[in-house]
Design goal:
Layout lengths: L1 E5 L6 H15 L3 E5 L3 H8 L5 H4 L1 H18 L14 H13 L2 H13 L8 H11 L3 H8 L2 H16 L7 E4 L4 E3 L4 H10 L1
Parallel strand pairs: 1-2
Antiparallel strand pairs: 1-3, 3-4
Helix pairs in contact: 1-6, 1-10, 5-6, 5-8, 5-9, 6-7
Length: 197
Amino acid sequence: MVQFWYEFASSYSYPAAMRIGRLARESGIEIEWRPFLLGPLFKEMQGLSDSPFNAFPPKGRYMWRDLERICEAEEIPFVKPKKFPHNGLAAARLALVGLSEGWGEVFTRLVFSANFARGEDISDPAVLEPLVTEAGGDTRKARVRANSEEIKDRLKSNVDQARARGIFGAPSFVCDDGELFWGNDRLEQALAWSKQH
């Protein structure tokens, strides 16, 4: 099994989320989807209150062009969001609800598409709630549960576990033996490692 650690505001988590299901099926590897928040880790580890891609403009310009190339090669739709990053807190909480109810993977891909294929504001409930329905969830029940202490604590726990595993960016992939792979371009390597070890 491979844990897939992703942040909805993360640009490189987008192609990873769109590719991982197919690649995992082809490899015969089970995926555990683990949404988390990068903000607390960036602040603790690097003293950043914003994305490194905004804090270092040359890096940001490169990232957007790189993402365009990746999406074009993978035939994944891409539109640069007008604002970056969008706050992924509400989406992460809803994803945790969905993952416990069987619609979380579909919801995750829909949220990434809203953010990076259509440039929509994924912090807006008016954007997220139709995606819950489209993924197969009950919007009203999901909204209530996403704001429960249970789900808030689960997301905090994911951040704590990410920190404990040495995760510092997204996407990250953690194999059963604890081997860590960081970045969309390490997805295939993580799956191969998991299969061999």
